[in-house]
């Protein structure tokens, strides 16, 4: 049963994922309660759970803000994703049903359709509608494997981690046609090898996919001027090791 607190939690979570709430933004309990159409109490409760999930910080005498991950936090969040999502490929090895496989194909096609739209319109970057569709399809693809494990704590963990990453990557300028095509190709490889039962290859391409995404997120983070030089970036981003070989 979905409670009002759950409804408020999901609403704020979705706004972070959509880039409507970004790192450093102040969250108003009153404004959110009015927006959702509920009292402030469940919103306040939802904010406590969002804080526990690492998505917001409550600053004394200031208010609640969307948490700004630090440089090292971003790397650790991707390390966590790599560990959990490669585990999911192993745990779901015998549970990728034909229905799940076809769902994965459908989400791949949705991403490919966005790439075709961009190519047809000579678009340099996705518009807001295309970005929302891409993020939805991308998340849904990864949930195919996470849901196959049958562990809702894992699903919640990864969705919260993605929201933390998204909060610092909102407005990322590199959602180009090449970025979308790379995501599509990674997804197809992961799905193909998972379906064949070749877990090691599926894990390899999952790690490469996350490594590629991490590099883009860190590059954007550095462009925001957090005070980290390129040498530090390269030392913390080896070709192998930090997400596993």
Give an overview of the whole structure.
It is a single chain. The protein is mostly helical and 245 residues long. It has helices at residues 4-17, 29-36, 40-52, 71-91, 98-120, 128-149, 152-169, 177-196, 199-223, 230-236, and strands at residues 26-27, 56-59, 63-66. The protein folds into 2 domains: 4-66, Winged helix-like DNA-binding domain superfamily/Winged helix DNA-binding domain (Arc Repressor Mutant, subunit A); 71-236, Four Helix Bundle (Hemerythrin (Met), subunit A) (Up-down Bundle). It has 10 helices and 3 strands. Strands 1-3-2 form a 3-stranded antiparallel sheet. The chain is globular and about 55 Å long.
State mean pLDDT (0 to 100 scale). Answer: 86
Q: How many domains would you count in the coordinates?
A: 2
- Largest sheet descriptor: 3 strands, antiparallel
By CATH, the superfamily of the largest domain comes out as: GntR ligand-binding domain-like
Extract low-pLDDT stretches: 226-238
**What CATH architecture of the largest domain would you give?**
Up-down Bundle
Instruction: Report the structural category.
Output: mainly alpha
Kindly report the CATH topology of the largest domain: Four Helix Bundle (Hemerythrin (Met), subunit A)
Distance between the termini: 42 Å
Give the number of DSSP strands.
3
CATH class of the largest domain: Mainly Alpha
Which range does the strand content fall in?
A: under 5%
Helix content: 55-70%
- Using the CA coordinates, give the radius of gyration: 18 Å
Morphology call: globular
């Amino acid at each position: 049963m979905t409670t009002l607190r759950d409804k408020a939690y999901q609403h704020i979570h979705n706004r972070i994922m959509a880039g409507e709430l970004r790192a450093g933004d102040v969250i108003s309990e009153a404004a959110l309660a009015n927006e959702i159409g509920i009292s402030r109490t469940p919103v306040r409760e939802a904010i406590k759970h969002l804080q526990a999930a690492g998505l917001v910080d409550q600053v004394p005498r200031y208010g609640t803000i969307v948490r700004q991950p630090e440089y090292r936090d971003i790397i650790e969040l991707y390390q966590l994703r790599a560990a959990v999502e490669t585990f999911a490929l192993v745990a779901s090895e015998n549970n990728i049903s034909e229905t799940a496989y076809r769902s994965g194909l459908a989400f791949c096609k949705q991403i490919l359709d966005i790439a075709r739209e961009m190519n047809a319109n000579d678009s340099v970057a996705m518009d807001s509608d295309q970005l929302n569709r891409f993020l939805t399809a991308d998340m849904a693809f990864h949930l195919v494997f996470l849901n196959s494990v049958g562990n809702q704590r894992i699903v919640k963990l990864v969705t919260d981690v993605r929201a933390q990453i998204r909060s610092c990557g909102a407005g990322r300028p590199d959602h180009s046609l090449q970025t979308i095509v790379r995501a599509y190709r990674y997804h197809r490889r992961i799905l193909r090898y998972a379906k064949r039962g070749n877990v090691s290859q599926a894990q390899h391409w999952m790690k490469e996919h996350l490594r590629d995404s991490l590099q883009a997120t860190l590059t954007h983070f550095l462009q925001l001027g957090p005070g980290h030089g390129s040498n530090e970036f390269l030392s913390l981003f080896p070709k192998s090791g930090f997400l596993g070989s």
